[in-house]
Here is the input.
Amino acid sequence: MKIISGGQTGVDRAALDAAQALGIPCGGFCPRGRRAEDGRIPERYPLVELASSAYAARTRANVEAADATLVLVQ
Here is the structure.
């Protein structure tokens, strides 16, 4: 099992924090520049930067990399 996340604020980072605390492999893709709603995604999250800064590209890459996906929207 591996937790894949885009590193956005809220549940994205909570999933990465929980995975790291429990020793579960984690990672994923994030926008160029580690772009997030609150600025730059911290380096402690093992994410691969995409060439695109678009959130949609990040979401697509993470969905394609996963065997199953949980998408939460507001």
